[in-house]
Amino acid sequence: MAAGTDFSPPFTVLEDSYSKDNMLAKEDEISENSENLKQITFGKPPRHLSIVRHCISSDTEATATDMGFDIRVGIKSQSDGKSDFCPVLRSGSCAEKGPKQYMEDEHLCVDDLSEHIGPTVDIPSPGAFYGVFDGHGGTDAASFMRKNILKFIVEESQFPIRAEKAVKNAFVKADHAFADDSSLDISSGTTALTALIFERTVLVANAGDCRAVLGKRGRAVELSKDHKPNCASERVRIEKLGGVVYDGYLNGQLSVARALGDWHMKGPKGSACPLSAEPELQETVLSEEDEFLIMGCDGLWDVMSSQCAVTMARKELMMHNDPERCARELVREALKRNTCDNLTVVVVCFSPDPPPRIEIPQSRVKRSISAEGLNLLKGVLDSNS
What we know:
Helix content is about 30%, strand content about 20%. α4 packs across α5 and α8 (about 305-320) packs across α9 (about 325-335). It has a single domain (about 20-385), classed as PPM-type phosphatase domain (Phosphatase 2c, domain 1), CATH 3.60.40.10. By secondary structure, it is of the alpha+beta class. The protein has ten helices and 15 strands. Strands 3, 4, 5, 6, 11 and 12 form a six-stranded antiparallel beta sheet that branches. It has helices at about 25-30, 35, 115, 140-155, 165-180, 230-240, 300, 305-320, 325-335, 370-385, and strands spanning about 70, 90-95, 105-110, 125-135, 190-200, 200-205, 210-215, 220, 245, 250, 260, 280-285, 290-295, 345-350, 360.
């Protein structure tokens, strides 16, 4: 999974897998303007560019003006690490069964962490916690994690001083506790994606193929990596531990390389096994340019690129500034695209105000390019610089 390459220092760069060949469909449309835009440095586009051209359905398609782009003067980045920006957190969510027979997803939204956990733990303010859990083989694992993962994090001795260590330990301990609960079906499993926010710091933890994407002035910045068995690093880890990847499935059974639960595929507690419950972490420091966070299960990302989701979410928030309605529209769009899975989306806004209009430098050449196409072009130009 790719994150942008032109990040301010607080961002950790993730490896990319997009192909320049996918940009050929845009080439004629933007060739006249490429020279004018080469002075601008932006991040790389997301993966799956082949579906980006269809990122907005007919009833939500927007021009650059619709998206809040004003063709006048440029804006300067304010993410210099010295900002006094303090996020105001609010969230909304939407979950739908979709075409599946049963709903196995769970999610959690805590906008005020201090109020939620009480005065027993002194934590920075503002503080918040969000989670998306994509279950499989039943609902027990996803439900258990939704109810308990935050408790395991807060009870860690490292919390909140060493939040990274606390979160990583909590994932593994929650997995073991699930295995010890005789009232539950421990062969059920779940992926887990969480976001812990303290002041300006966002700590994303991911085990599985849910995804967290930051909306940064219209650009998509991925804060997690999908753990698919075919992913090069995951495949090496799996095979080193005696597992196999067959037709994209771990041991021919599971379409993710990391998950909690699924104890029929794991060895004794504490032993290394191909299916890991340990999350990958990424920490990000927010700036004024960071507008919202989208957390979603793979039912969303199977039919929508990260950039597409950010473009659509930004347009929605500019119109009504309601994160819950925004999450609902993303789910609705994924259903229109015939997703084959359950759908869960959480949208977290970092300001009480809607996203502002983005100003782009004046060009002498009259152009007709979508807002998303422009973001993709910026990423390609940046990768060539």
